Amino acid sequence: MKGRFITIEGIEGVGKSTNVAFIEAQCKAAGHSVLVTREPGGTPLAERIRDLILTTPGEGLSDMGELLLMFAARAEHLASLIRPALARGETVICDRFTDATFAYQGGGRGLDTGLINKLQVIVQGDLRPDLTLLLDAPLEVSVQRIASRGDEVDRFEQEQADFFGRVRSAYLKIAAQAPERVRVVDASQPLVEVQARIAEHLSDI
Ligand code: TMP
Question: Is 109 exposed, middle or buried (CB count within 10 Å of its CB: 0-12, 13-18, 19+)?
Fold first, then answer.
């Protein structure tokens, strides 16, 4: 695998979309051929699985079913989009990846991280991101963002603040355990500051 694999993580409302576009522009300016994608999703089938997950409310989907659907979507995404792009030497920028599974299904839902680890190995082998940018901000940022969505909330946005508190803690724990790969960026700073930090981390790889 020659290409670089960059992932962006964080709770709802921390500005992932804006910064994915910034990272794409930075990588292109550095002369890389870039593929931008997202999880769950990224291929037609994986996008259908995404719809299934996000539009099924509460108890209509079990925690275990949710976990396995995330990895089913990931298996498709890896096989038909991510691995071929990396093999072609492209820089792949993915809006969320397996750290989100550890944070949401592990931290948020309370599923066993040992099990998530096993699925990670089954589905990904030894493929891991080269760099993960964790956009971190206080919980109020998520709460405000979700409130602004009105009635159009998805399966995760229906959750309460304590759920997002557990998700955020799980993300920070992952970053503490893998500080070389996972770089925490304070997303509560002005955008220009956030992007200056992101540019520094990108230049490291
Ligand atoms: P998005 O709103 O950032 O596009 O992500 C969709 C939702 O899916 C978001 O609430 C986080 C959730 N998610 C998980 O719970 N587990 C995962 O593994 C991934 C990739 C996303």
Answer: middle
Q: pLDDT for 117-130, tens place per residue?
A: 999 999 999 999 99
Nearest alpha-carbon partner for 46 in 17, 70, 20, 82: 70
* Ligand 1 pocket test target in 9, 96, 98 with most atoms within 8 Å of CB: 96
Nearest ligand 1 atom to alpha carbon 155: 10
CB 137 within 8 A of CB 13: yes
pTM higher than 0.85, yes or no?
A: yes
Name which of 171, 142, 173 is nearest 159 in CA terms: 142
Rounded Cα–Cα distance for residues 89 and 135 (Å): 26
